[in-house]
Please model this.
Amino acid sequence: MKVHMVLSAVALTALLLTATQLAGETSPAAAPTTTPSAPVVSSSSSAVPSSAPRVYASSSDLPDGPTFPETGTGTFHVVPGEGPVVGTGPLRTYAVEVEDGITVDDQAFAAFVDATLTDPRGWTARGARAVQRVSGPASVRIRLASQHTARAVCGFEIPVDVSCRDGGFVVLNAARWFRGAVAFLPDLTSYRQYMVNHEVGHAFGQGHQPCGAAGGPAPVMMQQTFSVSNDEIVRITGGVPQGAFIPQDGKVCRPNGWPYP
Model:
């Protein structure tokens, strides 16, 4: 991932790089819940049998799990659908897109994004802003991208699959959408909520944050795809600027996908 500011990341009803370029998980949460089955995809990526649990060397490792879209065309189509204005304050519109050439349930992906962004624990809380899903021009375009497309946009200089914000585009890495992150295991739903809220948070002008209170919920703008430990984030990023000072203070937070948990 180019580390400009990078993820480093609700059920269907219930998903800088340098300071002058991208913002995402590598300057690119809750109690376990039942994870819904992932949409069917076409991919050659192999899964590891659940009977052989893996010991992860780093919290930034991509967890074992189902296959995911590795490649796509690099172009995107809008998922049709619009919604009401939710929240008060300045209105931010968003559109939902999926990369061409990958097989996913478009409507299920869009419904998850909608449910996350309109949740009362999300970015509309406390009158901060309002959001509305549109099919046309939008201030934020939220894209589900194949692993290779996400790497091309978000960078892979630190060899960790992440999501990112590229201008008005939020790019969600399908590898993480289907596998999640070690810190959140086995709760894929909460990780997807984190993906959406973290990267949309960048689009809303939010920067990275460290774990502030040991044992407390991680700030949603903490790079939780890397880790919920400040020390481990510093070790993984290896001195690459993350757009915020991350102290080596031994603090470890609990994974969290919400701006206002």
User: Anything to note?
Assistant: The helical segments are 106-117, 147-154, 174-179, 188-203, 230-237.
